[in-house]
């Protein structure tokens, strides 16, 4: 990556970041820093290096390709063109000259758009908290969180999921990611093994790896993980921790069957491992309300993490943990040396919103919005998607997981459709080793409901073209799991 | 600690926590769980276990002593009384019956009282941010922080300290403690050595230990660390990191001389270690404005952490890092998997306060308040403190470090004066091994200026009594450092 240290980005510039990156790479080519035939860095690595979204790098690489500076080879990466075209020396000025459309259909982004946030409720609540508590709203809090909020969360768990939690075991954290990090610090030592679903959320994997943990993937099936594979890998070496999103999983949208939930708890007891349940949006159910794994946890093996980022707003940076009581002490200590405590002001506002039920009203509103989008999306996929592409309908949440036939890679499809203004999330991102995947995630978080059908029509058309274009690649049907 | 798991505290009860803990321990004695002659857990350990302040435990133990359930032995701890007095069986009902005064003079607490917080400025700023940005104030932020704020901080560093920083190397964090944790994750692996000042801030030591680091203490002198000791310990084994508060240190109030600052930078280059500078309140200077170590850092060896908890308000949970540019990428990654990003709303409000200069006005106001307290405190200590007690006058900040003659322990003095309503911070707390210390910290953060002189008079009187009471202990004068 040393060759890329001189890249300078101006995030205030009206010029899109991907164009800036494109221009910088062109400069490096012209300066002879990057050589013909040289491989460009993996997308995620350069993205982390430049602190930009992976998609920005993909766009920059696509532009390099389009302008003749680079060539992408299926499954092996992007390379500097061996023989640069003369025309490629022309400087690139701006977006419109590049004839690349803006994103019209954003099926990639997972975060809820700001217009759904309860800003007015928050504003009136924060003013009341400031008038009520004055400076005390800004004093240090106890590490486990503002006590009245923990009481409210205890009530919330019972009211929503019939979980009888004690506020003593509830710990307020600055979002689910911090929850994962804190539990990792409390539980994991160098060399410990963590089982994760395959595919899974990469931010969790990073936190586990930071503790020196070894990651083992367990294939996800339509009703939860593959229990045979799980058992076989447990017998080989039981993990310290199993990380799971049992309802509306990210990225697949899959929910565990009740039976698998119970089996998982039983196995955790039998083999002495703990379970980290990441509840990122159980509340966005569209038919039956699913129970968290924690609701089945009579053995006290489950660390439960609840995020408010999807159902309320991400910028609040609040979530909470419900932990086995034996761990409450160490969790509070780890929270203390991690960041002392989460913002007391935001905790007080959230507490007020839960107590006064505006929180529940907002949940209902958000659920209604996404139920409508989910219905449109499901119908549209069933209607337009070409048959070689598989998907299953999630029972809640924001994500659909689509798989191309074997031999096709979603990263290539991604690169093709982004030019048409359609933004999808390649599956590679959700595997710890970033392996090329035929699958990709579609999200209904950002796209307006009026545009879903049109977007899926466009995407389906593009997929048909893509499948034709790459039809020389033989498709093996045997041993094909729609999730790998 | 297993014997203490049944202790239940009700933090909403009007009964003080220390009385509740006292009652619970009495219950454990009566139930035969705790046995006559048995040693009670170390104060800090039980405090962490019960998630209360160490002082609460000290109070509980003192009450056990007073009521005849326990006896404390200088330097070795508190033990269950071998022969329990009959009268000790009477249940304790409430605070007044115990004849223990409330805290009248709080010289222990380090946090600034809520009445100094700029609540009205914050409130009007937050309303403007919400009106201006709407839901975007609650969207996900980039991990390194809200870009306009990082620009404001870049300006702040230049304006206040003539540090030419690039916003690209500025990372917004959720308070200084998180800054320490993030830098620890980015730099430290199992078995690495970290040098710390002795005494030092224990929250930092906990973060280093969580990474499996070995802690080595370097004695602090009146003008910074002991350079001979430092050099000798470096030659034995250079550290990966040296953790320092070069100005108005916590707990001693000591500031490094300019020469020692320069020597430290030179040594870090020569021996290849990094420096973690914890700037917890450089802005509270009372004569000359001191430069941070970072201002001398031409070698790019210093990770600089700025806290806003003391100078603005702790509940905001905001601070920032300025890191050597080579580390900017990894710091952003670590921040991401630690908690994604700090509260975007609070960042936007702080940005507005810096841009509109109300932040600087507040700094000036706070500095004036504490300058006045510092003058009263300094005069009062000089006037009243008995001569065997040593202290030096800090050039800024909130802390004075007082040392009893050798052979006397501050924890015993603490236990004596708390009964008179005077609250001091025993030195033990600031040593990684919690060793009994003759020194203690006085803070001017909480005590109102009108009460400083009276409090110091009372304290001085109590110290005289204490020195008389324990005068049978021989005082060795040789090799005595006022900081150990």
From TrEMBL, chains A, B:
Q: Which UniProt keywords apply?
A: Aminotransferase, DNA-binding, Pyridoxal phosphate, Transcription, Transcription regulation, Transferase
Pfam families per the UniProt record, alphabetical? Aminotran_1_2, GntR
Q: Which Gene3D superfamilies match?
A: Aspartate Aminotransferase, domain 1, Type I PLP-dependent aspartate aminotransferase-like (Major domain), Winged helix-like DNA-binding domain superfamily/Winged helix DNA-binding domain
GO MF annotation terms: 2-aminoadipate transaminase activity; DNA binding; DNA-binding transcription factor activity; pyridoxal phosphate binding
Residues of the HTH gntR-type domain: 15-83
Q: What's the EC number here? A: 2.6.1.39
- EC category name: transferase
The domain of life for this entry's organism is Bacteria
Please give the InterPro entries that the UniProt record associates with this protein: Aminotransferase_I/II_large, HTH_trans_reg/aminotransferase, PyrdxlP-dep_Trfase, PyrdxlP-dep_Trfase_major, PyrdxlP-dep_Trfase_small, Tscrpt_reg_HTH_GntR, WH-like_DNA-bd_sf, WH_DNA-bd_sf
- Xref: PANTHER family: HTH-TYPE TRANSCRIPTIONAL REGULATORY PROTEIN GABR
Sequence similarity = In the C-terminal section; belongs to the class-I pyridoxal-phosphate-dependent aminotransferase family.
What is the name listed in the Swiss-Prot or TrEMBL entry for this protein? 2-aminoadipate transaminase
Organism of this sequence: Thermovenabulum gondwanense
